Amino acid sequence: MEDKLVKKAIKGNFKAYSILVNELKNEGYKLAYTILKNEDDSIDAYLQAVEKGLKSINKLKDPQYFKTWFLRIVINESKNIIKKNHKIVYLNDIKIDEIKEKLDTETKIDLEIALENIEPQVKEMIKLKYYMGYKLDEISSILDIPIGTVKGKMYTALKNMRKELEIIDYENR
């Protein structure tokens, strides 16, 4: 069903395109929000992605990748808003409600300190995996980088965070 809609959208059917992007509305907004941390900017990023996608839908070669293609546009539009507004977005400002509820105050602080030392691209991978629930192959597609790079960078970052958290825990004893 969805492939048929995508094919219609590629041929210029506005109604088919509208249905497709509407199905991705919540996911697109949440993705933008994890990057921007601002409701208005997140809505703007999603809407700009809808507009940009509409203009370039005819360039999509494989209908099965519509979702990945569109979410990549959302990410790029979110980044454009950051550049335009000269905003710096720190991962430690993003609420990790499920994790934080289970942690004591000291552990929360330690976790946020460890997250500060991660490079921006890896922070984005972590957001996609642990905040948005994407699989590694989906992250690879969305960020347009090899899956081996995703695995390697995330493995290294998480390993370094564990070491850092162990050091912090040892120092606090």
TrEMBL record:
The keyword Transcription applies. Coiled coil: none annotated. It holds the Pfam family Sigma70_r4_2. Keywords: Sigma factor, Transcription, Transcription regulation. Residues 114-161 form the RNA polymerase sigma factor 70 region 4 type domain. InterPro entries: RNA_pol_sigma-70-like (IPR039425), RNA_pol_sigma-70_dom (IPR014284), RNA_pol_sigma70_r4_t2 (IPR013249), RNA_pol_sigma_r2 (IPR013325), RNA_pol_sigma_r3/r4-like (IPR013324), WH-like_DNA-bd_sf (IPR036388). It comes from the Bacteria. Belongs to the sigma-70 factor family. ECF subfamily. This is Sigma-70 family RNA polymerase sigma factor. It comes from Romboutsia faecis.
